[in-house]
User: What shape does this take?
Amino acid sequence: MNAVAHGANRRTAIRLGLVALAMFSFGYVLAPFYDVLCRAIGLDRARPEFATAIPTALRLEFDTNVADGLPVTIETLDRVVAAKAGGLVKARFRIANTGDQPLTIRAIPSFAPVRAAGLLQKLECFCFDALKLAPHETRDVTVVLLVAKALPEELGAATLSYTLQPA
Amino acid sequence: MTASTETLHLQHADHQAHADAHGWRRWLYATNHKDIGTLYLWFSFSMFMLGGTMALGIRAELFQPGLQFWHPEFFNQLTTLHGIIMVFGAIMPAFTGLANWMLPLMLGAPDMAFARMNNWSFWLLPPAAALLVISLFVPGGAPAGGWTLYPPLSIQAGMGMDLAIFAIHLLGLSSIMGSINIVTTVLNMRAPGMTLLKMPMFAWTSLVTAYLLIAVAPVLAGAVTMLLTDRHFGTHFFKAAGGGDPVLFQHIFWFFGHPEVYIMALPAFGIVSQILPTFARKPLFGYVSMVYAVCSIAILSFMVWAHHMFAVGLPATAQLFFMFMTMLIAVPTGVKVFNWIATMWQGEMTFETPMLFAIGFVCLFTVGGFSGLVLSIAPIDIQMTDTYYVVAHFHYVLVAGALFSLFGATYYWLPKWTGQMYNEKLGKLHFWWSMIWFNVTFFPMHFLGLAGMPRRIPDYPLQFTDFNSVASVGAFCFGLGQLLFLYNVINTIRGGAGRAPARPWEGAHTLEWEVASPAPHHTWEMPPDEALVKKGLRAQLLDQDHE
Assistant: This one.
């Protein structure tokens, strides 16, 4: 290898070595600047102003299901409701017995996410009691919920689901 | 001119003196790129055997629920060491070894740029491996907190962790020096007429990989140094008790760790891009797009690290950013897979062992890529984090990806290295054996992960028994099959299936096939003349100006 090529190789190697050294310090630089960086681009959830922020509305979605083979239909009259912190929410459903026999059914409620359950207090629900339906009867039922005074910022939406089962 | 000819002669005499060193001196004092490449390859194979034995220890314990063989602490040491040894001891040195052996031959350079530094890069590896093995026998045993060395476990662990930290320092130093050598060789020592965009793809992927290593190996070295000072010198980088942040370690580690994934994948891409055109007897489809794909994968790899940390609790904005950046990597990777398939399309394909491994690579790496895409979706990843689904995913990309490409490369270049042909029947048996048992081992792990089986546990609930038994049987068969490979390589060195011509594959047009088989100790002392370079480029359809 001639002297010119040798010099070029040396220069390349020194430059690359400097990059390696710089990257070694980069890890250390992250230690103090990681928090600063997160705060600067607004990615820090631990910021105090986020902790106290009270979002005003929670989006409530209602979902309904019927157990297999049950001759009943259920229709959600208010599919999506905006729930205000501390307010009351009323949602209506229309249940119909499509069969020729009288039926006794019960609605099984569930929540997603589960922690939404603690924020919504059921004052009245058609799921509290079994329902007796005459043949071909249609009936409107309701759910009334009291919304908690403080809603967590990241919750955003909650789904309430009711599944009709034979009682 | 006279002066330079004279120097050449002098150097030649000097080289002859090196070649004359015999016995252990030839290897300990090695400065020849071929000798050093051979050392790297044998070292990585022995580490593969060591790490593989540990894997069999893991699979033996997991064959049935309950504790049969090991204490849980030792089981965790096995999983940790298996990871560290396979990543840093087996896969990475194997690619460096291939780069050492093949780059000067493929580029028309007389040797690597820094022959003595090259020697040091290699000889740092055995002490590092020794430190890792010794750590098994010190009080407290080897590190057992997983290969990612997360604090607080890595801060609380015994002195085995210190040995592992020093081992990682040595491995990192070796990688950085090896990479400086590769970059310098590729940038400064190519034959006249071979511009950057006319290089073989393996040279391109080695170059980009070396850049990645220079950028991230020091970051890992920094992270483990911080661990070391946290452990012994009163710093509090990661100690929550002193105001430090354990999550910071994860950020720094994965800033290294994700590019590391591509450090183990890109050279495999390069190898497959050499093998497929040879046996399809067609030039590589979309050469320039391949180069751009490699470069964009490398750049993107620096912007996705936190997808390893979705379950840690990132703000939604950060989760979305890292999720979308990760999904974006599917685009250049898709370009590569498309180009490989298009290379084979309407080619006159034959299925010698290297080709089988290359096609196996394309199929199974794509499966691993898809499970990676599934994991890139933050809400799914939070569910899948630390389950066997992740284990299945990274073994598809690392075993069927990196390792299969290494087997392919070995069969492909073995005639050049040894001057003999390997036994084709045994090679094909090795491929099909590996292909079948690999899938028997790792495919059930997808189901286990989806069903919720966590990784790094020595015992598990009864419902996971069947798939675990299947995986263990697969692992033992896969492991035993690798002895076939060892036998085939040794047999080839001893004569194999007869003498190999300089160009054993008629579809191969890169420069390494222009020298005799076995490659003489010194090659391209005078750079190949431009006509020879041009001839090869024309055969690969790389002679037009596309820069």
Remarks:
- Confidence is low (pLDDT under 50) at residues 1-14 of chain B.
- The domain at 37-539 of chain B is CATH 1.20.210.10 (Cytochrome C Oxidase; Chain A).
- Residues 285 and 339 of chain B are 5 Å apart (CA to CA).
- Chain B touches chain A at residues 4, 7, 11, 110, 113-114, 176, 179-180, 183-184, 187-189, 214-219, 221-223, 226, 237, 245, 248, 251-252, 255, 315-318 (CB under 8 Å).
